[in-house]
Write a structure and sequence with these properties.
The complex is a heterodimer of chains A (110) and B (115).
Chain A: E1 3-7, E2 10-14, E3 19-26, E4 30-38, E5 45-50, E6 56-59, E7 62-66, E8 70-75, E9 84-92, E10 98-100, E11 104-109
Parallel strand pairs in A: 2-11
Antiparallel strand pairs in A: 1-3, 3-8, 4-5, 4-9, 6-7, 7-8, 9-10, 9-11
Chain B: E1 5-7, E2 10-13, E3 19-24, E4 31-38, E5 42-50, E6 53-56, E7 65-71, E8 74-79, E9 88-95, E10 105-106, E11 110-114
Parallel strand pairs in B: 2-11
Antiparallel strand pairs in B: 1-3, 3-8, 4-5, 4-9, 5-6, 7-8, 9-10, 9-11
The chains are: A mainly beta (110), B mainly beta (115).
C-alpha cells in the first residue's frame, strides 16, 4: 500500500535555529514528491515539486531534497513567519492522485 | 485567476440533514480532487475526477457520501444524511493535467460541523 510518513509531528525552534523536516515514502513508482505549506484556516499552498533522487529545490529559507526513500525540507535561520504546518505528498505513476502525510507543525519563536 | 473557489466556507448543520459542498476549479485544469482533513487522520483523498469522470472513489467513507462533476467548472460533494463524525474541513483541489510539472492547487476549504 502506498504510504507517506512525516516526522516529527511538531517542532519548536528559536528564531535562527536551523532544522530539517522528514518525509518518508513507500509508493509504487514515484511520479513526483510535493511539499506544501498550510497556515491555520487556509488551504495548503504549493512550495516545491521534486521528481528524481538527488534533485534539490530552494526558495528563500527553504530547501527541499529527495532520495529514493525520503525527502527533507531544510529550514535555514527560520523566522516566526515560517510557522505553519508543512505537508508532503507523493504522486505515483499510473494514477492521478496525491497521497499526503499528516504534516509537521512548525512553531518558530522570536 | 481567482484560484479554486469553495462554498460555503463554514457550514453548521444538524445530524440527519443533507449537506452540499461546492467547488469551482481553476479554469483549464483537467483533474479535480476532494479531500477531508481532520487532526487525527490528516488529509484524506475522498474522490478524484479526470476530465469530469470519476476515476477513483475508494476514499469515500460510505454510501452517505456522493460527488458529481457535471461540467469542467463545477463539482459538488454531498453528504446525506450527515452525522457528527463527518465534522471536518473539506478541501477541493485541481491540477492542470497529467504532465511532469503537475501540482495540485487547493481551495480555502469548507469547515463542516454536524451537531
Amino acid at each position: 500500500e502506498d504510504q507517506v510518513t512525516q516526522s516529527p509531528e511538531a517542532l519548536r525552534l528559536q528564531e535562527g535555529e536551523s532544522s530539517s523536516l522528514n518525509c518518508s515514502y513507500t509508493v509504487s513508482g514515484l511520479r513526483g514528491l510535493f511539499w506544501y505549506r498550510q497556515d491555520p484556516g487556509k488551504g495548503p499552498e504549493f512550495l516545491f515539486t521534486l521528481y528524481s533522487a538527488g534533485e534539490e529545490k530552494e526558495k528563500e529559507r527553504l530547501k527541499a531534497t529527495l532520495t529514493k526513500k525520503e525527502s527533507f525540507l531544510h529550514i535555514t535561520a527560520p523566522k516566526p513567519e515560517d510557522s505553519a504546518t508543512y505537508l508532503c505528498a507523493a504522486s505515483t505513476s499510473g494514477t492521478y492522485k496525491y497521497i499526503f502525510g499528516t504534516g509537521t507543525r512548525l512553531k518558530v519563536l522570536a | 485567476d481567482a484560484g479554486v473557489i469553495q462554498s460555503p466556507r463554514h457550514e453548521v448543520t444538524e445530524m440527519g440533514q443533507e449537506v452540499t459542498l461546492r467547488c469551482k476549479p481553476i479554469s483549464g485544469h483537467n483533474s479535480l480532487f476532494w479531500y477531508r482533513q481532520t487532526m487525527m487522520r490528516g488529509l484524506e483523498l475522498l474522490i478524484y475526477f479526470n476530465n469530469n469522470v470519476p476515476i477513483d472513489d475508494s476514499g469515500m467513507p460510505e454510501d452517505r457520501f456522493s460527488a458529481k462533476m457535471p461540467n469542467a467548472s463545477f463539482s459538488t460533494l454531498k453528504i446525506q444524511p450527515s452525522e457528527p463524525r463527518d465534522s471536518a474541513v473539506y478541501f477541493c483541489a485541481s491540477s492542470p493535467g497529467q504532465t511532469r510539472t503537475t501540482e495540485a492547487f487547493f481551495g480555502q476549504g469548507t469547515r463542516l460541523t454536524v451537531v
